[in-house]
Amino acid sequence: MTIRKAQIEDLPELQKLFSETIIKTCQNEYSLNQRKVWSKAVKKTEKWEKSLKEEFFIVAESEKIIVGFSSLKNKNHLNLMYIHKDYTRKGIASLLYEHIKAKSIEYKVEKLNANVSKTAKPFFEKLGFKTVKQHKNIIENEIVINYKMTE
């Protein structure tokens, strides 16, 4: 497993991983319609490009396949954390988190915060994150719940 800085050339693979992860991995916590409207964020290419340029954005690679990615925004916000649907429960999220946390320590940040899905919430709780607030995001008339969490 290799962790490296994400490149603009990774964008199509990142977008595919993002969409497939939401559709397949989050099926126990979100309805199909909720997952479909949420995954449409993949089409906001300009936003993705901005994240790749401005954030500490890393990918986990196994045999030249991107199996996960994460990003740190504004030094203290874990913005993205997605793991390939076929590679969940293999320690990839923990490995990415360790790199994100190390970078935040370089920035002298004491606590990270994140907006996390129902699916990811137990993982973040195991890391010591606490729920600050529940968000009800309305996307195309669907309510998609996530949680603001902090260490």
Please give the order of strands in the largest beta sheet.
Answer: 1-2-3-4-5-7-6
Approximate helicity band: 25-40%
What is the CATH architecture annotation?
A: 3-Layer(aba) Sandwich
Domain count: the total is 1
Low-confidence stretches: none
Rg over CA atoms = 15 Å
Average pLDDT confidence is 96
CATH secondary-structure class: Alpha Beta
InterPro entries: Acyl_CoA_acyltransferase (IPR016181), GNAT_dom (IPR000182), N-acetyltrans/Recomb-assoc (IPR052564)
Domain N-acetyltransferase: 1-150
Organism: Tenacibaculum soleae
Protein name: N-acetyltransferase domain-containing protein
Description:
The protein is an alpha+beta fold and about 150 residues long. It has a single domain (about 1-110), classed as Gcn5-related N-acetyltransferase (GNAT) (Aminopeptidase, 3-Layer(aba) Sandwich), CATH 3.40.630.30. About 35% of the residues lie in helices and about 35% in strands. The chain is built from five helices and seven strands. It has a seven-stranded mixed sheet with strand order 1-2-3-4-5-7-6, sandwiched between helices. The protein is globular. The two termini are about 25 Å apart. The mean pLDDT is about 95. This is N-acetyltransferase domain-containing protein.
